[in-house]
Amino acid sequence: MSSSEGTNADQLVVFALGSEEYALPIRTVQEVIRFQEPRAVSSSDPSLLGVINLRGRIVPVHDVRPQLGLADGRASTNGNDGSNEGEKIVLVHIEEKMAGVVVDDVSEVMNVDAQQYEDLPASGNAVVDGVVKAGERLIIMLDPQALTSLSGDQTAPLAS
């Protein structure tokens, strides 16, 4: 697994999608923001909800639930803005690429040792990088490189 190679410990941002726990390396998470409805854009990528303007930068926002086999994508809405009350957008940043991933809630920052990581070579899912065993918990690691590549294009500054 690329996340743990050459390291003895790492910090992960743990979040919920449905009843499952997922994580990303903290070094790839720029920030977590409250959900804001993305502006729809034409795309062949079914996970792309649209784009948001983040301080002058256009950022694609994805719902990866269908790719992870979580039925029905986003749950039914109950907020005034069309979002679930607790939904957040985790902003993933690698090199010059950035993408937002809609999550139900962010639960913690967790310290893990390299021996807690395990690859999932048979998963066949590009966005899944492996699993972390934390006591009785199994936390699915997402691949930040795959998440920032979902839209194909790098994010760009907002035109004036």
Largest sheet at a glance?
A: 6 strands, mixed
Alpha-beta classification:
mainly beta
Count of distinct strands: 12
- CATH domain topology: OB fold (Dihydrolipoamide Acetyltransferase, E2P)
Helix segment tally: 1
Strand adjacency order, main sheet: 8-1-2-11-10-9
What top-tier CATH class fits best?
Mainly Beta
The named CATH superfamily: CheA-289, Domain 4
* CATH architecture classification: Beta Barrel
Globally, the shape reads globular
Task: Tell me the distance between the termini.
Answer: 41 Å
How large a portion of the residues is in β-strands, by DSSP E? over 45%
SSE string, helix = H, strand = E?
EEEEEEEEEEEHE
Description:
The chain is mainly beta and 160 residues long. It has one domain (9-157): OB fold (Dihydrolipoamide Acetyltransferase, E2P) (Beta Barrel), CATH 2.40.50.180. Helix content is 4%, strand content 46%. It has one helix and twelve strands, in the order βββββββββββαβ. The protein has one helix spanning 144-149, and strands at 9-17, 20-25, 29-34, 48-54, 57-62, 88-94, 97-103, 105-113, 117-118, 128-134, 137-142, 156-157. A six-stranded mixed beta sheet has the order 8-1-2-11-10-9. Strands 3, 4, 5, 6, 7 and 12 form a six-stranded mixed beta sheet that branches.
How is the secondary structure organized here?
Blueprint: E1 9-17, E2 20-25, E3 29-34, E4 48-54, E5 57-62, E6 88-94, E7 97-103, E8 105-113, E9 117-118, E10 128-134, E11 137-142, H1 144-149, E12 156-157
Please tag this protein with its features:
single chain, about 160 residues, mainly beta, OB fold (Dihydrolipoamide Acetyltransferase, E2P), 6-stranded mixed sheet, about 45% strand, globular, disordered C terminus
